[in-house]
């Protein structure tokens, strides 16, 4: 296939840079856009995928990464989202090991660097898709569209829709998937660098390597398999130089017979067969790993997919596509979550929003007709491959093949935006060719657009630095989204502002009356504020809507216990345990209920269950020691306390309780040791100073008793019993002083 420099490329208002300099420029722009997110916190989904994911910890067997989903749940679990991304989780684990723990800076920096690398590699990818595949004598890609590929890569590096993937750490999945996607494509191109002049030679080895890189992309995120579609389109349109329009005319109108031999000689069928076999193998393996069943999503996650009317379902899907297109065209209204009322369903064909999907399809049909029917082979190739790169990576998110768990998600546009950027760069080059006298105006427009992109990226990545700024930024974009109000409320509650949190939780429940998580959290806050009746109503409603909501059952039990509805509370606790077998906190609260009813043996059994399920459950251990102490079982209390400290050697509350027991057993020296150790950990504990003083008082070390009574009263002047004991000690000291010779 004879290749020549792209005729519109010299009109692009950019300097022609050397390949290395061009890549460095693009990488620097990418860094400039997102560098201010480097010191951000763990936000939103980072909590589940990283902070609470046991697969990141060195104590967890490495094999767990290959059997658990992205969030650390077993793939066979009914609650698993079936997101199988072990290579992404492996990079999280490496971050954890290198930083010695959960230090977000390392996680963020790697994301930013990955985006810079991907943006730089986009130059090579765009160069091939626009100018065709050519190698020099050093086996390096010859860029026949240096300005257009540079401009498209700059647009990609600075596109604000990438903020979620770069500034949000869980976006690592999109970044790694995109990197292996690029490598798979570039490796597939390498298969045709055989040194032969004809198109009938190719390297099977490089095709196989490309398939392996595709598998790696898929192990980072499921979307990675779409590179096979891009590779196939590239092979047909560019390597084999097939004119799709002419081919369709031949087949439909039977003007000329299709020369099958010509197709066979190119090796196209062999390559397509290899890719089809590889793709089917990957899909089968993925299906088996997933447990041969799709993830279960709810109507809240994707309401359009639950619409009974298939016509309205299709209309809403197409409206979602138009929203995604708008995010690429005008990435100003960005939101971390687009579910729960953020995008109301279209329920009638007369809805004015149907105009947007009609406009979308008019544009797509117009672009497709230009791509297929243009007499200019360069334009035809660029438009067709640009559309392929825009559409194919988006296919897994389009609800056609399977239901997805979101309405709109900016992160799924990371790869598709490359196709958009290619088409945008082509359009600007085409404008420069047609309107040469406005070339300076186009140059100003390009610079202005890039500056706006960079500024928007900087602003948006700053919003992603903290949950507070991220969640509040969504209020103006999606004011009808109950999840936005819920997350704002949760963030306020975590920071101690429960009054404001109540307002946002109530709004979340108003917008989505069956939002059980908002009811549960609101009920918890009302419980803490002693507004028990309303708390009980909310939690009862939550479990009636979702009967298997174990946390709500437990919280309802706590409220009922506070209202002295002991039978109802016990039933609620057992319901929670029925729906979540391993629930140590629920066993702990059940033990408290039994203790309040003087059912001491049941309480001890419940707390023992809590410690079996969670060996470091400090409260359960401590309550067992205290209960045994209060009931006079000092020997057993000592055994339990010592057992607890083997598991929790730095727990000052257990040391305190065990020291009290040892004091009553007249093991004064050991008791003193535990009290002093507890005070080294928590030196401002008034009760610990007070009880140590009582120990010294009994032991006859009166001056030390006096010292610790005074320290206790200094820390807490109202400490119960301490002042009486102190006054008693002073009288005794006075008597001893008067009786002294």
From TrEMBL:
Assigned keywords, A-Z: Endoplasmic reticulum, Membrane, Repeat, TPR repeat, Transferase, Transmembrane, Transmembrane helix
The protein's enzyme class: transferase
Membrane topology type: Multi-pass membrane protein
GO biological process: endoplasmic reticulum unfolded protein response
EC number: 2.4.1.109
Subcellular location: Endoplasmic reticulum; Membrane
Domain of life: Eukaryota
Cross-referenced SUPFAM superfamilies: TPR-like (SSF48452)
InterPro entries assigned to the protein according to its UniProt record, in alphabetical order: O-mannosyl-transferase_TMTC, TMTC_DUF1736, TPR-like_helical_dom_sf, TPR_rpt
Protein name: dolichyl-phosphate-mannose--protein mannosyltransferase
Protein's organism: Scophthalmus maximus (Turbot)
């Amino acid at each position: 296939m004879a290749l020549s420099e792209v005729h519109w490329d010299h009109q692009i208002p950019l300097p022609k840079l050397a390949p290395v300099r061009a890549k460095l420029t693009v990488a620097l722009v990418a860094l400039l856009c997102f560098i201010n997110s480097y010191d951000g916190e763990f936000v939103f989904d980072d909590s589940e995928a990283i902070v609470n994911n046991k697969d990141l910890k060195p104590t967890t067997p490495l094999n767990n990464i290959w059997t658990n989903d992205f969030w650390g749940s077993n793939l066979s679990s009914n609650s698993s989202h079936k997101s199988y991304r072990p290579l992404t989780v492996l990079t999280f684990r490496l971050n954890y090991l290198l930083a010695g723990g959960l230090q977000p800076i390392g996680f963020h920096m790697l994301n930013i660097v990955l985006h810079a690398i991907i943006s730089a590699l986009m130059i090579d990818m765009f160069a091939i898709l626009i100018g065709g595949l050519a190698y020099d004598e050093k086996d390096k890609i010859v860029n026949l569209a240096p300005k257009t590929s540079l401009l498209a890569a700059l647009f990609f590096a600075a596109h604000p829709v990438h903020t979620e993937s770069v500034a949000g750490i869980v976006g690592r999945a999109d970044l790694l998937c995109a990197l292996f996607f690029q490598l798979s494509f570039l490796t597939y191109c390498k298969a045709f660098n055989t040194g032969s002049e004809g198109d009938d030679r190719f390297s099977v080895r490089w095709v196989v390597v490309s398939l392996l890189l595709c598998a790696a992309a898929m192990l980072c995120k499921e979307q990675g398999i779409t590179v096979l579609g891009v590779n196939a389109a590239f092979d047909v349109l560019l390597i084999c130089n097939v004119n799709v329009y002419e081919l369709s005319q031949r087949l439909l109108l039977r003007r000329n017979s299709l020369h099958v031999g010509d197709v066979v000689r190119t090796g196209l069928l062999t390559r397509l067969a290899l890719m089809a076999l590889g793709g089917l193998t990957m899909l089968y393996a993925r299906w088996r790993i997933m447990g041969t069943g799709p993830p279960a999503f709810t109507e809240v996650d994707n309401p359009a997919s639950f619409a009974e009317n298939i016509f309205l379902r299709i209309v809403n899907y197409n409206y979602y596509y138009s929203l995604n297109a708008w995010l690429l065209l005008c990435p100003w209204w960005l939101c971390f979550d687009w579910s729960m009322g953020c995008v109301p369903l279209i329920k009638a064909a007369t809805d004015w929003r149907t105009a947007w999907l009609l406009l979308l399809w008019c544009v797509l049909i117009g672009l497709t007709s230009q791509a297929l029917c243009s007499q200019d082979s360069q334009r035809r190739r660029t438009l067709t491959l640009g559309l392929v790169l825009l559409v194919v990576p988006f296919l897994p998110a389009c609800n056609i093949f399977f239901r997805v768990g979101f309405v709109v998600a900016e992160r799924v546009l990371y790869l598709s935006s490359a196709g958009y950027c290619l088409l945008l760069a082509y359009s600007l080059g085409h404008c420069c060719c047609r309107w040469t006298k406005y070339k300076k105006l186009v140059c100003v427009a390009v610079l202005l657009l890039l500056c706006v992109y960079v500024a928007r990226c900087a602003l948006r990545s700053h919003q992603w630095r903290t949950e507070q700024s991220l969640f509040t930024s969504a209020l103006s974009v999606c004011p009808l989204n109950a999840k936005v109000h819920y997350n704002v409320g949760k963030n306020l509650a975590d920071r101690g502002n429960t009054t404001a949190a109540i307002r946002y939780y109530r709004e979340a429940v108003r917008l989505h009356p069956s939002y059980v998580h908002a009811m549960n959290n609101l009920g918890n806050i009302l419980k803490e504020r002693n507004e028990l009746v309303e708390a009980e109503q909310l939690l009862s409603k939550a479990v009636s809507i979702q009967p298997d909501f174990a946390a709500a059952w437990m919280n309802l039990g706590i409220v009922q216990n506070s209202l002295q509805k002991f039978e109802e509370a016990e039933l609620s606790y057992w319901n929670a345990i029925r729906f979540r077998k391993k629930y140590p906190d629920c066993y702990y609260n059940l033990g408290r209920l039994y203790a309040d009813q003087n059912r001491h043996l049941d309480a001890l059994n419940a707390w023992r269950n809590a410690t079996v399920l969670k060996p470091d459950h400090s409260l359960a251990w401590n309550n067992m020691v205290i209960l045994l102490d209060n009931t006079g079982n000092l020997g057993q209390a000592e055994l339990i306390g010592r057992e607890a400290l083997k598991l929790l050697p730095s727990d000052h509350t257990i040391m305190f309780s065990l020291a009290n027991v040892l004091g009553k057993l007249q093991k004064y020296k050991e008791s003193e040791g535990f009290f002093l150790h507890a005070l080294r950990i928590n030196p401002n504990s008034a009760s610990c100073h007070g009880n140590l003083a009582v120990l010294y008082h009994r032991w006859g070390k009166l001056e030390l008793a006096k010292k610790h009574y005074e320290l206790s009263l200094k820390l807490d002047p109202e400490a119960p019993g301490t002042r009486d004991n102190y006054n008693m000690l002073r009288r005794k000291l006075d008597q001893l002083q008067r009786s002294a010779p």
